[in-house]
Each structure stands twice: as C-alpha cells, then as structure tokens.
Amino acid sequence: MSSIITCSHVDLGYDGHVIVKDLNMDIERGSYISVIGQNGSGKSTFIKTLLGLVRPVSGKIHKNLPANGIGYLPQQTEMQRNFPATAMEVVLSGFLSQKKYRPFYTKKERFTALGQLKKLGILDLSKTCYRELSGGQQQRVLLARALCASGHLLVLDEPVTGLDPAAAKELYRLLKKLNEEDGMAVLMVSHDLSNALKDADHILHIGHEDYFFGTKESYRESEYYQKISGGAVHGIN
C-alpha cells in the first residue's frame, strides 16, 4: 500500500500550545485506523489538523490526495439533526466543494449520489426529510454525503455516538465493507475500544503529549493498552 497522508515530526496543538509531540505516521491507501484516547487528549485537534482547519505547531503533513480527497463525517449537533432537507439534498451537498460557482448539480453528481444511497441501503429514503429519519438512517445519509465528497479517505468523529446498538453495529458493518470491498481508507475517532480493535488494522492512541501508532497486534502488547484494557481509564468505554 502507498501513503496518502504522511505526518513527519508533527507537533499538534493550538495558539502555540503543544498537546501531542513529534507525531510520525502514514495513512496508507485501504488502511483502517482507529484513533483512541482520553477526553481532551488531542484527538479532535488531530482531526482538525488533518482536515487543514488547524495548522500544526511544527512539522509537516504531506497529502498525496486531490483537493477533495477527504470525506468527513463529524459529530452531529441537535440543529443538524433537525435540518429541513431531503436525504438526497443532504447527500448532494457532499459535492459542494467541487461545485464552485455552478448554481446546480450535474447529472453525473446526481447519479453518483443515488448510487451511494443505494450502496448504503437507503435509496428508498432519498425523498424523505432528513429530520424524520432515525439516528442510524441519518448517519448512513451523512456517510453517503462523505462518500460523494471523496473516494480516498473517510474521517469519522465518533460516528456511533447516540445510536442504539443495532444501528451502531450496522454502521460498523458498512464501514468495514467500504474498506474491504472498495479499498476506502478509514480513520475513525472512537470511544468504543472493543470495536476499534475489532475492525482496525492500525491504532493511533493519543495520550497527553505522547502517542502510540502501530498495528493493533503491537498495540495489544503496549503499555497504552494495558492501562485502558477493561475500560479502567475515564473517557474510554
């Protein structure tokens, strides 16, 4: 596999304050990385830095991706859950960065959006108002939107928060299918340690100023895992 993002000696933080030091890692095509750690350890800052919303304090991040190479599925706010648009309109919004000054979506974009809805098993909901959908259905709509935004890397921030166990299990299944069958790279922030270890091939554990990055097999043998196995640390379930 080849790298699509490389972090070289990156210090993560904000306003000059470093919260993770000397991060070195590669995100490879088709990889599945779970990002775990205590609340406030720097997971969100890492995601924002990858997305280009926050600059690293030092170091370099090289992206071997097109400008629209990352699809992002953030945590939802209550206002977003009640957004008054159809599922199809929400999915099409994944093309906004490519749309530029065009006042309409192309036929190809509409066809792709319908294809993503079908792939995720919610084509029949395309004309349903987003706020009338269940939490699991909403997450699949947002996943379809993220897939329209990118065919290379999906970045997800605690995507199962607020979902019932059945909906969470289905979302994990869909992510694994996209990873294995479509070769989509997945980077997911999660507090669900058991599923983080079950589905991922690599683990990024962010602590306070330090971190672990490696295969899940090597992670199980690390001091980081020993400290949190069994959910003994606050902020990780």
UniProtKB/TrEMBL annotation:
InterPro entries the UniProt entry points to: AAA+_ATPase, ABC_transporter-like_ATP-bd, ABC_transporter-like_CS, Metal_Ion_Import_ABC, P-loop_NTPase
Any Pfam family: ABC_tran
Family membership: Belongs to the ABC transporter superfamily.
Protein keywords: ATP-binding, Nucleotide-binding, Transport
Signal peptide limits: none
Single Gene Ontology MF annotation: ATP hydrolysis activity
Keyword hit for Transmembrane helix: no
Protein name per UniProt: Zinc ABC transporter, ATP-binding protein ZnuC
Species whose genome carries this gene: Anaerostipes rhamnosivorans
SMART domains in the record: AAA
ABC transporter domain sequence ranges: 5-233
Keyword Nucleotide-binding: yes
Domain of life of the organism encoding this protein: Bacteria
Record-linked Gene3D superfamilies: P-loop containing nucleotide triphosphate hydrolases
